[in-house]
Amino acid sequence: MTYLTPMTTTVEEAGRGTDLALLPVGSFEQHGPYLPLATDTVIACVVARELAAAYPALVLPPVTVSCSHEHAAWAGTVSVSAATLYATVHDIARSLRRSGYRRLVLVSGHGGNHVLANVVQESDGAMALFPGLPDWASARSAAGIATSDDADMHAGELETSILLHAHPDLVRPGYESADHTSGDRRHLLTTGMPPYTTSGVIGRPSLASAAKGREVLAALVMIFDGHLSAMRGASR
């Protein structure tokens, strides 16, 4: 399982000439009947693994429970408060600095963790949040994904494609016929997702493929270089 990758890192490996750490931040929330509750965490770990293969970095164990309050109507979803997530990430960053890691990238697999943007804004250039919405949009385009970020909000073409590529064993039958789209969702933060979907799906998973997932990850690796440059520039 992807979670185990950082668990095997030794002291010698952790100290090899980099000041960059990657913290996957996922969630534990419903992803329809065909993707696991840990989908966001798995995706964050997959992205972090791909980044570390291309750029020297320490990959940390993931944050597996975060702010998933909009999914609370479905069994299995677990959340912590925004204050708890903020404090957890802040404490991890402070601890990393003591051991020489001056740059921390929050590799986000869950869009509902809005507080992460505030943590990064307060870091004086020492942190980045990746992938952001523009990064996902660029990666979707590069991979030929048909749906947009807005239309493909949850358990749709993007997430299913990444898992079909990286962990096909985690994708259960049923995604081929689970498409559900919703229009205007302006009240989602107030009401949660139930008014907009009964299945928990908002997107078109029927369009997913392993090839698209592979191309999304390749595009994200290329895009990440810009974030590193921004962090280097901010630290001068």
Describe this structure in words.
With 236 residues, the protein is of the alpha/beta class. The protein has a single domain (8-234), classed as Rossmann fold (3-Layer(aba) Sandwich). It has eight helices and four strands. It has helices at 11-14, 39-54, 82-98, 115-121, 133-143, 157-166, 188-191, 210-234, and strands at residues 20-25, 58-59, 103-108, 127-130. A four-stranded parallel β-sheet has the order 2-1-3-4, with helices on both faces. Strand 3, helix 4 and strand 4 (127-130) form a beta-alpha-beta unit. Helix 2 packs across helix 6. The N and C termini lie far apart (38 Å). The model has no long low-confidence stretch (mean pLDDT 93).
- Structural Rg: 17 Å
User: Number of DSSP helices?
Assistant: 8
CATH topology: Rossmann fold
Q: Secondary-structure element sequence?
A: HEHEHEHEHHHH
Unreliably modeled segments: none
Q: What about the largest sheet?
A: 4 strands, parallel
The tally of structural domains comes to: 1
Helix fraction by DSSP (H/I, runs of at least 4): 25-40%
Read across the widest sheet, the strand sequence of neighbours is 2-1-3-4
Which helices and strands occur, and which strands form pairs?
Elements: H1 11-14, E1 20-25, H2 39-54, E2 58-59, H3 82-98, E3 103-108, H4 115-121, E4 127-130, H5 133-143, H6 157-166, H7 188-191, H8 210-234
Parallel strand pairs: 1-2, 1-3, 3-4
